[in-house]
């Protein structure tokens, strides 16, 4: 993956200097080398080296370097996560919006069902 980004970085410099006719050939070359989708490659080449003035003092520059991976700490441990996955499967893999509405109700139901089965 880093090789593809390196190739795109080198090609992007040529792409910015090229005429409209030459850009088509450069784009075809990049697609053949990297295997990127056409529109993805166009977005990479257009964005690299582009400067955007945000405020008088802040300027953003497009870069093809590796973007930092976003990391978020886990809220649940493995046991809780596996239990939630089982409940999600029982609920037929409903979407997050419905899950948020339905989960507290179903949790109350399963807790009462578990209590009643343990009393028998």
> What summary fits the major beta sheet?
2 strands, antiparallel
SSE string, helix = H, strand = E?
HHHEEHH
N/C terminus separation: 59 Å
Q: Determine the strand fraction and express it as a percent band.
A: 5-15%
Shape verdict? elongated
Unreliable stretches covering 5 or more consecutive residues:
none
Please, what is the oligomeric state?
single chain
Number of helices: 5
Number of strands: 2
What's the pLDDT, averaged over the residues? 82
Percent of residues in helices: 55-70%
| Major sheet strand order | 1-2
- Based on helices, strands and strand pairing, what is the structural class? mainly alpha
Rounded to the nearest angstrom, the radius of gyration is: 26 Å
Detailed description of the structure:
The chain is mainly α. 65% of the residues lie in helices and 5% in strands. The protein contains 5 helices and 2 strands, in the order αααββαα. A two-stranded antiparallel ribbon has the order 1-2. Helix 1 packs antiparallel against helix 2 and helix 1 crosses helix 3. The radius of gyration is 26 Å and the shape is elongated. The termini are far apart. The relative contact order is 0.08.
Structural descriptors:
mainly alpha, 5 helices, single chain
Describe the SSE topology:
Blueprint: H1 2-17, H2 20-34, H3 38-47, E1 51-53, E2 59-61, H4 78-90, H5 96-119
Antiparallel strand pairs: 1-2
Can you describe this structure in just a few lines?
Strands 1-2 form a two-stranded antiparallel ribbon.
């Amino acid at each position: 993956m880093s090789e593809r980004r390196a190739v795109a970085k080198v090609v992007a410099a040529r792409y910015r200097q090229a005429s409209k006719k030459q850009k088509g050939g450069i784009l075809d070359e990049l697609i053949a080398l990297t295997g990127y989708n056409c529109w993805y490659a166009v977005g990479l080449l257009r964005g690299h080296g582009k400067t955007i003035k945000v405020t008088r003092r802040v300027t953003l520059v497009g870069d093809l370097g590796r973007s930092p991976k976003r990391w978020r700490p886990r809220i649940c441990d493995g046991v809780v996560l596996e239990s939630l996955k089982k409940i999600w499967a029982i609920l037929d893999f409903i979407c997050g919006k419905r899950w948020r509405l339905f989960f507290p109700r179903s949790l109350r139901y399963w807790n009462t069902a578990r209590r009643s089965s343990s009393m028998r």
